[in-house]
Amino acid sequence: MTVIINDQIFEFPENPLLIEVLNQQGIIELRGLAIAINEEVIPRDKWGSIKLKSNDQLMLIRATQGG
């Protein structure tokens, strides 16, 4: 199954949970991370229950500090 993460194509087993995809991508530090699926921001408390579908587009945004 194809999932697009920040404009890069990845293959996963059928309908993985969002949190599983993050773990498989090595994204362990979740603090400061925002996620949108198909341009809809997903609340953090839903990350463990949302199943992805083929061709879903994820945008991962990490907050940074500085100025």
Automatic annotation (TrEMBL):
CDD domains: Ubl_ThiS (cd00565). SUPFAM superfamilies: MoaD/ThiS. InterPro entries: Beta-grasp_dom_sf, Mopterin_synth/thiamin_S_b, Thi_S, ThiS/MoaD-like. Pfam families: ThiS. Coiled coil: none annotated. This is Sulfur carrier protein ThiS. It comes from Arcicella aquatica.
